[in-house]
């Protein structure tokens, strides 16, 4: 494990090649109040200006990811949303400024039914195949990027889902994680958040699976891939990248998946990584 400092980076990353730089949003580009520091913003813009391919890679749905692109001045390229469930091609010449190039759906019924038995008081939300958010019990969150429409549980079961979110106000994060683990969810990919929060996607769908498709579209050498993140939903992405960087506040299992650790989100750790790549050019 390497701790990133301004003194330098391993020689194998010091090339003039363009890199694919996958950046998580919450806890990486923005703090837990949703604030992006001027230093991080300017570093991201400078990396774009240097010719690198910045790919926002987030658990947020695309409606909540788009303002981040605007904030860093990203006007063309790709963005991975919904933990790999949706990939956008960003191009300001398009009518909406973007188009969806991949959307992976799954049948949520087995997971929903199992979770409801184990977590009867939990709240459920679902991003469907049309990009709408549906939820039980007035469940809203900024990561949805849209106001969720209230529906009953049976309606949710019949949907084709891109992303399912489960939240419990009656469990600690540890209790919630243990409950989810005991269920033994099959046929889906899932990650437990910082709180009693669960994100579910189709089997095999992660930020890493979507990023690999983006890498192939851009024809980037696998050795020129970089990923920065802080959450459990970033583990596959950090392992996928040639240079996986965990934020300083990351839990131990995220750090274990990375090849480096940078400063925390409050220390502008992402900016240090971006500037190391700009300096290498």
Q: Which keywords apply here?
A:
30% helix, 25% strand, six-stranded mixed sheet, globular, 2 domains, nine-stranded mixed sheet, 281 residues, alpha/beta, Hypothetical Protein, Haloacid Dehalogenase-like Hydrolase, Chain: A, domain 2
Task: Describe the protein.
- There is one protein chain.
- The chain is of the alpha/beta class.
- The chain folds into two domains: 11-103 and 206-280, 3-Layer(aba) Sandwich (Rossmann fold), CATH 3.40.50; 109-202, Hypothetical Protein, Haloacid Dehalogenase-like Hydrolase, Chain: A, domain 2 (2-Layer Sandwich), CATH 3.30.1240.10.
- 30% of the residues lie in helices and 25% in strands.
- It contains nine helices and 15 strands.
- The protein has a nine-stranded mixed β-sheet with strand order 1-15-14-13-2-3-4-5-6, with helices on both faces. A six-stranded mixed β-sheet has the order 9-8-7-10-12-11, with helices on one face.
- Strand 13, helix 7 and strand 14 form a beta-alpha-beta unit.
- Helix 1 (38-49) runs parallel beside helix 9 (269-280).
- The longest helix is centred in the N-terminal third of the chain and has 12 residues, at 38-49.
């Amino acid at each position: 494990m390497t701790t990133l400092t301004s003194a330098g980076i391993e020689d194998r990353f010091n090339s003039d090649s363009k890199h694919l730089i996958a950046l998580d949003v919450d806890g990486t580009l923005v703090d837990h109040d949703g604030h992006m520091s001027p230093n991080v913003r300017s570093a991201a813009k400078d990396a774009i200006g240097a010719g690198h391919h910045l790919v926002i890679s987030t658990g947020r749905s695309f409606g909540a990811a788009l303002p981040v692109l605007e904030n860093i001045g990203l006007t063309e390229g790709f963005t991975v949303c919904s933990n790999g469930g949706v990939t956008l091609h960003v191009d300001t010449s398009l009518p909406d400024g973007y188009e969806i190039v991949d959307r992976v759906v799954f049948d949520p019924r087995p997971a929903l039914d199992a979770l409801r038995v184990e977590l009867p008081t939990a709240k459920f939300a679902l991003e469907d195949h049309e990009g709408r958010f549906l939820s039980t019990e007035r469940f809203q969150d900024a990561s949805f990027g849209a106001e969720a429409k209230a529906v009953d549980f049976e309606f949710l079961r019949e949907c084709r889902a891109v992303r399912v979110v489960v939240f419990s106000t009656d469990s600690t994060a540890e209790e919630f994680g243990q409950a989810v683990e005991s269920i033994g969810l099959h046929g889906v990919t899932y990650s437990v958040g910082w709180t009693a929060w669960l994100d579910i996607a189709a089997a095999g769908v992660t930020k890493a699976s979507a990023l690999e498709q983006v890498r192939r579209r851009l024809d980037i050498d696998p050795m020129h891939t970089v990923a920065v993140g802080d959450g459990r939903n970033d583990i596959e992405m950090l392992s996928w990248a040639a240079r996986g960087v965990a934020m300083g506040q990351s839990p131990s299992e995220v750090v274990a998946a990375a090849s480096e650790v940078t400063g925390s989100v409050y220390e502008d750790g992402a900016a240090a990584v971006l500037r190391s790549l700009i300096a290498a050019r």
